[in-house]
Amino acid sequence: MNLATSNTTLIFAALLVFVALYIGYREKLGMNKDILIGVVRAIIQLVVVGYLLKYVFRVNNVWLTLILILIIIFNAAYNASKRAAGIRHALPISLLAILASTGLTLVVLVFSGSIRFVPSQMIPISGMIASNSMVAIGLCYRNMNSSFRDRRQQVLERLALGADLRLASIDIVRESIRTGMAPTIDSAKTVGIVSLPGMMSGLIFAGVDPVHAIKYQILVTFMLLSATSIGSVIACYLAYQQFYNEQKQLL
Amino acid sequence: MVLLELENIGYQIAGQTVLQQINLQVATQDYITITGPSGSGKSTLLRIIAGLLTRTSGQLLFAGKEWADYDPILYRRQVSYAVQQPQLFGTTVADNLRFPFQIRQQAFDSAQATAALTSVNLPADYLNKPVNDLSGGERQRVAILRNLLFPPQVLLLDEISTGLDDENKQILHREIRRMNQEKNVTILAVTHDNTEIKDANRLVKIVAGKMEVDQ
């Protein structure tokens, strides 16, 4: 393997941070503190994760792997729910959506033989699925909040005519699902042309034949489509009901 | 027969009193107009009767039964509310006339829809017309058809003729009067329009959230 990064090379590479700090200082962006916090957090989090993963991979225990996957899912759900900006029950909704999307996608991957149930494959893949699902759900929430605000009058008119909640909100629900899935579809269209994504770059870095590496990237494209669509659908169908009270009135 | 009964209806929001002690008995086929200065709570009252807001005090009875005991969705099909400056749905007139069928899970009856268009002086081929090509008066006429395709027991009109020219007002009033007389639809209309007030058999005036006149 040609992997050359070491502690010494990282110290030199840290010069790149100073570039960002210099720009922040020159342009009076007032975000140098954030840059430093970001850098320090990234280093600490990654060091911890590095040692943790090393331990988990060595132990290679099914339960430990599952617990780690659940922790990833919970963190993703927690972060998605923070983007819900006031939608009631956002945490349980996000949890269910990410659990289902990650779980179903993993089951298909494992049973198709695409990945093996070993921690070194299950954990990174779960992280990719859950984080994409999280971003998609966050986009769904944001779109839903703004649509219910902008189209309040139209929703009210539908209710006034005696529509049930589903029919009163269906346009907003569909649009929100689309918003959640759009980035994944867009990136599927440009993968390989604009970007060489992480999975495939990593394998190529490690010396894998690019023709073999792209197969993993194709797999990633498939699984992210599934994850973001399942996550968006579940989150949107549960979230829209939170915009109404028990008397089926718009809140 | 008393169809709607409002007993001491009040509505407060964020510590402010919007309506207080509204008492009103509405008989089947009544045509009541509600007037009063803007901001006096007329629209709020209509929304409470429509089941789109819940009053904070008092009782609302429909056909002798408390409002809260009805399924709100089915109630709203019987007590239908038409707003001022409605927004049309979808892209064509047909999208709007299809909606009342959709919510009742019925197949779209285009003959019924074209008959409805004719009843408000709109040509039958308007069915496929883009809503963006309609004039303000035409939009309002299409919008009211969404309430009237399946005639409700009570029709609540919230200043629907405001800003329309005389011709459009007349067409709307004629259709509403017909609904009232031929289909026994009970009408409660918030309005400042004198012809509409003349059509009505009762006038209620609300000032600063309180009923002033009921004649």
In short:
The complex is a heterodimer of chains A (about 250) and B (about 220). Helix content of chain A is about 80%, strand content about 0%. Chain B has one domain: P-loop containing nucleotide triphosphate hydrolases (Rossmann fold, 3-Layer(aba) Sandwich), CATH 3.40.50.
How would you describe this protein?
The complex is a heterodimer of chains A (251) and B (215). Chain A is an all-alpha fold. Chain A has two domains: 59 residues; 182 residues, no CATH class. Helices cover 78% and strands 0% of the residues of chain A. Chain A contains ten helices and no strands. The radius of gyration of chain A is 21 Å and the shape is globular. The mean pLDDT of chain A is 91. In chain B, the strands form two sheets. A six-stranded mixed beta sheet of chain B has the order 6-7-8-3-9-10, with helices on both faces. In chain B, strands 2-1-4-5 form a four-stranded antiparallel beta sheet, covered by helices on one side. In chain B, strand 4 and strand 5 form a beta hairpin. Chain B is an alpha/beta fold. At the A-B interface, helix 7 of A face helix 2, strand 6 and helix 3 of B. Chain B: It comes from Loigolactobacillus jiayinensis. Chain B: It holds the Pfam family ABC_tran. Chain B: Keywords: ATP-binding, Cell inner membrane, Cell membrane, Membrane, Nucleotide-binding, Phosphate transport, Translocase, Transport. Chain B: This is ATP-binding cassette domain-containing protein.
Unreliable runs of chain A: none
Work out the oligomeric state of the chains in this entry. heterodimer
Overall pLDDT of chain B, averaged? Answer: 88
CATH superfamily of chain B: P-loop containing nucleotide triphosphate hydrolases
- Our estimate of the beta-strand percent of chain B is 25-35%
Count structural domains of chain A: 2
β-strand percent of chain A reads under 5%
DSSP E strands of chain A, number: 0
What is the distance, rounded to the nearest whole angstrom, between the alpha carbons of the first and last residues of chain B? 18 Å
Q: Major beta sheet of chain A, specifics?
A: none
Distance between the termini of chain A: 59 Å
* Total DSSP helices of chain A: 10
Question: What is the C-alpha radius of gyration of chain B, as a whole number of Å?
Answer: 17 Å
CATH class bucket of chain B: Alpha Beta
Give the averaged pLDDT of chain A, no decimals.
91
Cα-based radius of gyration of chain A, to the nearest Å: 21 Å
